[in-house]
Amino acid sequence: MTEARNPSVPARVGTAVRRTGHRIRRFFRLYRIFISQFLKRLVEYRIDFLTGAFAFFFGQLFNVLFVFLIFENITELDGWSLQHIIFIYGFSLIPRGIDHLYADNLWKVAYFLVRKGDFDKYLTRPIDPLLHVLMEGFEPDALGELLTGIILVIAAGTSLGLELTAAQWLLGAVAVAAGTLIYTGIKIIFASAALWIKRSGSLLHMVYMTSDFVKYPVSIYNAFIRTLVTYVIPFAFTSFYPASYLLTGKDPLFCVGGTVIAGITAVCLGRFIWTRGINAYESAGS
Amino acid sequence: MKIKAYLPFISGGIQSQLAYKWNFFGFFIGEIFFTFVMYYLWKAVFLHTDTGIINGFTILDMTVYIFVSNITQFLTGTDASYAIGEEIVDGSVSMRMIKPVSYDISLLFNEIGTKVVLLVLIMIPVFTGIEIFRYAQTGAIAFSASRLGVYLVSSILSYLVLFYFDLCFGFLAFVLKNLWGFNLLKGSIVRFLSGGMIPLVFFPAWALGILRFLPFSSMCYTPVMIYTGNWSAAQTLASMALQLFWAIAFWLLSRAIWNTTVKRLTVQGG
After folding, report:
1. A203 touches B: beta carbon within 8 Å
2. pLDDT band at residue A3, thresholds of 50, 70 and 90?
3. Within a 10 A sphere around the Cβ of A164, how many other Cβ atoms?
4. Among positive and negative, which fits the CA dihedral A41, A47, A50, A52?
């Protein structure tokens, strides 16, 4: 009898799968549209986009020069050679650059979209507001950061004669993906704060700046800073831990497993707080 | 120039800084993180030296250098290129032309107002902290009021060099629409070449020979070295004269750019 009224369990699962499939297809169709809109702007303001990427590229090079100047006076830093430090530094730029590429709009939410009342538009569209924010802000400046990171990692790896095992390649890729989620998750959490307090740019800036610590081996810091960047704002998992696994092959469980856990936690927490924020949101516009 | 006409700009600067106090505290804390990164990095570097002295710097000298150079950069930092760049792009620069006040001095006084707040809220506690640290490390009071005075004069000169350099840079917005990336690049260049990351004596000798005379050393290195007390009176005077030279040079350059572009400027809207 019940069979007649309710669809069978396999049928219900089938519907859910179809619906999810439909959603994913819709997401990619929309993303294509947003990207093509973006490409039109790119062609229009070609020089501006190039200069942004160029600026990020050269800005990073000064930090590399700084490391070279330091190593004029020493041969190793806390057990790491010049090449090791460059490798760690370069690796730290990769997840950071990928996040910068697709999630830059979160800064605008934090700084002024909510405060100026422009955030309302995201709520009136038939699409998830968070996805909309992310899709809209593709940032080619990030290519400069990303490119520096890749070049440094390859150059340092080659100079060290580093040969990665298949497992290291795989876990390295997993760590880059999860490290990117750490950045995005943390940015979502603190951009969401703007939904309550209207403007959270400096708060986000402050938190984001703790990532400065993880460009170098975290073992040089005191226990407080080490704990902070490992367990509280887990940026160390975007750089030093996975990079040291790639360099030494030691401790994959903590170095990559920790990155995966931190990445998933950050994004889930970000999503949760964002949803609460959307529900609490009151427009600042007129 | 009637100074009285510009005083409201100072109080405007003070008010806007107080209104957005969380904003600058956020940035300040971000700078503190950077300072500690440098501190721990150098601490690890000095562990690996045999003599404990690199290029004439002990770990204590380096610590004072790092903290003073970062606080100096925070105090002398300027947003002139952002301010003028934004006005050029959105057209409100035309309003500056119809007002009976000089555009650069009104901008300067506005920013000096924000600096007054920083001086009171941040500089006094930080310098007290640095001197307590020095005392705890050496057991002797190294503080000298006259040196602090010379440091302050030199910092003001640094600020003027930075302000007019930045203003010239902001005029690039007449040519380029997106200054954001260039501003970041300029920030990295200035920080690196002005001694904001590493004392200039750590550069190779040929680079130091050039950097000494470029405007960058006038932006940060000079006041910081004066504060650390490692410079002779002659070197202090020569470096401050160079600061004055660069401040005037960039002031004249900004004037020249402004006067030539204004004649050819077309503003849509604004």
Report:
1. yes
2. very low
3. 14
4. negative
CB–CB of B185 and A220 under 8 A? no
- 3-state class percentages of chain B: helix first, strand second, coil last, to nearest 5: 80, 0, 20
pLDDT in tens, A111-125: 888 888 888 888 888
Q: Are A117 and A161 in contact (CB under 8 A)?
A: no
B26:A141 CB<8 A: no
Chain A residue with Cα closest to B176? A48
Dihedral class, residue A116 (left if φ above 0, else alpha if ψ from -120 to 50, else beta):
alpha
Strand partners, B114: none
Q: How far is the alpha carbon of B1 from chain A, nearest alpha carbon, in Å?
A: 37
pLDDT above 90 as % of chain B: 34
pLDDT of residue A8: 64
CB contact under 8 A, B27 and A54: no
The yes-or-no verdict on residue B264 having pLDDT over 50 is yes
The pLDDT, as a whole number, for residue A232 is: 94
The pLDDT value given to residue A181: 96
Specify the pLDDT at position B117: 82
DSSP string, chain A: -HHHHSPPHHHHHHHHHHHHHHHHHHHHHHHHHHHHHHHHHHHHTHHHHHHHHHHHHHHHHHHHHHHHHHTTT-S-BTTB-HHHHHHHHHHHHHHHHHHHHH-THHHHIIIIITTTTTTHHHHSSSS-HHHHHHHH---TTHHHHHHHHHHHHHHHHHHHT----HHHHHHHHHHHHHHHHHHHHHHHHHHHHHHHHS--HHHHHHHHHGGGGGGS-GGGS-HHHHHIIIIIS-GGGGTHHHHHHHHH---HIIIIIHHHHHHHHHHHHHHHHHHHHHHH------
CB contacts, 8 Å: A63 with chain B? 188
Contact B178 A76 (CB under 8 A): no
**What are the tens digits of pLDDT across the range B160-207?**
999 999 999 888 877 776 677 778 888 889 999 999 989 999 999 999
CB A128 within 8 A of CB A80: no
Task: Give A168-187 pLDDT, tens digit per residue.
Answer: 999 999 999 999 999 999 99
**Residue B31 or residue A11, greater confidence:** B31
